[in-house]
Amino acid sequence: MSVVFALATPPAKSAICVFRVSGDGCHSALSKVFSGDVFPPNGFSVETLRHKNRVIDRVGLVVFGAPKSYTGEDSFEIYAHGSLAVMSNIVDVFKGLGFEEAPGGEFTKRAFLNDKITLVEAEAVSDLIDSTDDRGVVLSNKTLFGELSSKVVSFGDEIDSLRVGVEAEIDFSDEDNDYFDSSLMLELSSLIERFGLFVGACISKRVGDEKNNIVLVGPVNSGKSSVFNRLLGFERAIVSSLPGTTRDMIGSELFYKSNSFSIFDTAGVRETSDVVEKQGIDISMSEVKNADLVLGVFEKNIPDEIDYFKNMCDEKSFVSVLNKSDLNKKEGSFDCFVSAKTGEGFSELKSIIENRFNSGVKDDGYDFLIKERHEKLFYSVLEDLEKAKANLSKKESLELVAEDLKNARSFLDEVVGKKFSDSLLGDIFSSFCIGK
Q: How many alpha carbons fall within 13 Å on the CB side of residue 147?
């Protein structure tokens, strides 16, 4: 494969920038831009990078020798000052050396092709980079560090063991004997049960990426938009003392203590003849159905009004918030008292939100984060194992049982990348960022 390079840090002014280079023969180019002829692998040195008889920068250089590198090839990394001009000059240096610019995911793709990681582990690299909360980090790392691959390989070995027994009986049994091994059925049933539990402990990234949805509801002029802005830390929604200012649903993302939430400000509920405002209120009511947590924002302690919104939320988790605590007495059975104007009480409100989610809303206990393709393959494995069991219980031809087991194992091979197509690799690595 050719020598490729990429900027592994964002192309913006920063303290440092990092360039990655990988490919057989890349080490021979080091003497052309640095002083000296020997650059020992697995070491860090500070070198002066030169090009066309002029100094570009004083950089850190890390050299890796195959196969002890991320890609499994000879490679090196350069740590330079994060100047846009320095970055541009380094790009010119690499192009002058005949290096090619790497597309997204090229380094991880090479790591997979060189058997440094399995395909499922390569996909976990992207998941880890995309993580926005602690759960994403933990689940991605469990896959990246081989736990999922180990499970898949172990199940594959069990399927192979069953298949060997079946095929041995096919090869060596007498033609007149009607063979049925009860222990084989027990082993297959146990495998199906345990594999089903394993699949149940996996969460699809498609589902895992769904944010915890928080919806703000309440009567008009209760200060929902002000509470919304204060939670976010910037002016996202228009604030006015005029009733009906918020006519449509406004959404944004809230990050708090490594947790990520989607938060929505909705139109205040009141009787109105304004067609646009009424439509906004209807949208607000329907969005409550999709909420994981509802914040009811009020400016007065009116029990009937609070009960109305609480009952509207049905079984949804509901937090009642009295706003304008700088003007009102802290009375009533509210969950929290805040002032959107002064910021009083918002640390407590954010803690309440965090605790509500941690105590059960979208609480999962999953072991692994998987892609949609893994999910489909796992269910195909279960389907073929069930077919094998059915054929065995009906005392059908053992050739059918062996074929079902073979197909189940084949699907597991696709998960870890023992079987793959060029189009599959293209689909997977096209979503990676440049430099990874």
A: 14
Q: How far apart are CA 285 and CA 277, in angstroms?
A: 13
Give φ, ψ of 5 to 5 degrees. Answer: -140, 160
Which 3 state secondary structure label does DSSP give 247? coil
Confirm if 45 and 78 have CB atoms less than 8 A apart: no
Residues 190-209 have pLDDT tens digits of: 999 999 999 988 887 665 55
Q: How many Å apart are CA 281 and CA 271, to the nearest integer?
A: 10
pLDDT per position as a tens digit, 35-80: 877 888 888 999 999 988 889 999 999 999 999 999 999 999 999 9
Q: Identify the domain containing residue 287 by its residue range.
A: 216-358
DSSP 52: T
In a shared domain, residues 320 and 400? no
Tell me which DSSP letter residue 28 carries.
G
Q: Which residues pair with 292 in a beta bridge?
A: none
C-alpha distances out from residue 241 to 201, 284, 341, Å: 50, 20, 13
Structure-derived torsion over alpha carbons of residues 231, 233, 234, 237, reported in degrees to the nearest 10:
0
422 in a domain, yes or no?
Answer: no
Model-level pTM? 0.67
Q: How far apart are CA 55 and CA 178, in angstroms?
A: 83
Gap between the Cα atoms of 231 and 251, Å rounded: 12
Q: What is the CATH number of the domain that holds 15?
A: 3.30.1360.120
Q: Within 13 Å of residue 10, how many CA atoms lie on the same side as its CB? A: 4
Whole-angstrom CA distances from 350 to 30, 255, 317, 361, 374 are: 52, 10, 15, 15, 36
Give the C-alpha separation, 62 to 77, whole Å: 5
Whether residue 140 sits in one domain with residue 84: no
The answer to whether the beta carbons of residues 1 and 49 sit under 8 Å apart is: no
Backbone φ and ψ for 397, nearest 5 degrees, come out as -55, 135
What token pair was written down for 99? 């290096």
Interatomic CA distance for residues 290 and 305, integer angstroms = 22
